[in-house]
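[retry 2/3] YkgJ family cysteine cluster protein: previous attempt timed out, resubmitting with same input.
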Amino acid sequence: MSRAIARQPLPSQPLYGQGFQCLRGGCDDTCCNGFSVPVDKQTYEFYRLLPVSEIRSAVDTHVRKVPGSPSDNLYASIEMTADKKCPFFTAQRLCGIHKEHGHDYLSAACSTYPRALNQVDGQLEVSLYLSCPEAARMVLLDPGFANRHTDGPAVPFRTDQFSKLARNGPDSPHKPFSYFTEVRLCMGDLLTDRSRPLWQRIFLLGMMCKQLDEVTSLEGEEKVAEIIQSYQQIVEEGTLRTELNHLPANTAAQLDLVLRVADLANRSGVNSKRFNESFQDFLAGIGYATESTAAQDLERYQHADNAYCKPFLEQHPHILENYLLNYIFRTLFPFGREASAHSTPKTIFQEYTLLIGQYVLVHGLLIGISGNRQSEFDEKAVVKTVQSFSKTVEHSPGYLQQLLALMEDRNLTDMKSLAELLPR
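[retry 2/3] YkgJ family cysteine cluster protein: success.
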């Protein structure tokens, strides 16, 4: 297999998110709906000084301090209305606070979204949450998205709050953080190596994560440079293709995981009409019904993949690559960001397992949806699927913990099982 498109080297510091521009009232799925919005202490104090007005009344009714807040970043939150909308959302589908008082009165969360801000070695990185439709289009549909950036932000946004690369501590697993940049660049090379199918690239990513996970002390970090060099050599020399081709696929287990993980999302309490629409689209594509058998569902799933999804992705190889690359940038994969009050530290291989769980669900949903859309399966359907999935799960640490626990409970955390799950 030859490279379909020559790709530019990935940037060491992603900045593409700073070029994002909101569609404002023209958005497919406004961020002012369905989210729990945190309010930092500075913004909360601004809100308490607002003069008497409709906006101030909404503040008094809907903005509440978080009891026992662990940080100033999560000092308060905006309670949604009964119909799951932000109380400041206007009939013109705009932010009332921004309209009345300007950008300076936006909370850090509202000012930066959908940008994901991470600080690495003193440098601010700006990637994107794909839960925003325009951000999803910007990332998924542009073959060179990672190298896109402006000389400065397209519009102003706050940069005073950001996540940091996790660090070794007494309650967290040891990770070779000093090699973060080298590891990420090597993983970028692995993922964009189109001389081999994407599932093999993802599998090699897992092998690398497994080896890095075995570096359990500062003294053992001397092995990391050798690990990186070995995978760089795999990319340069194209080795292991024949060996990996012999790894079997377990499409039945893949479909079962997609159904279970999607059901978990629907039961997680997240109300997402768009995700439910995508899931129903998927079920229709595999002919899922109370009277259908697992064998029949699997047969239709495989047909949809071979007849519609694979041909489409072969014509658009950058789409799933871009999804994975943005994930790597956004989450500081495979090392992770500093644990928030809502998450717990994970090992490098747990970070990989979590990535696989989400990737298999996204790819599996696309397979089923292609079976329903058939010749009308297009980029628009892909963007809606990824965006609605991302909005449902990426901002829910509790759901991600449940996903990881589900995969561990079903013994889907070894390389053989994960390889079998990967769509071919």
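[retry 2/3] YkgJ family cysteine cluster protein: The longest helix spans residues 348-373.
[retry 2/3] clearing retry counter.
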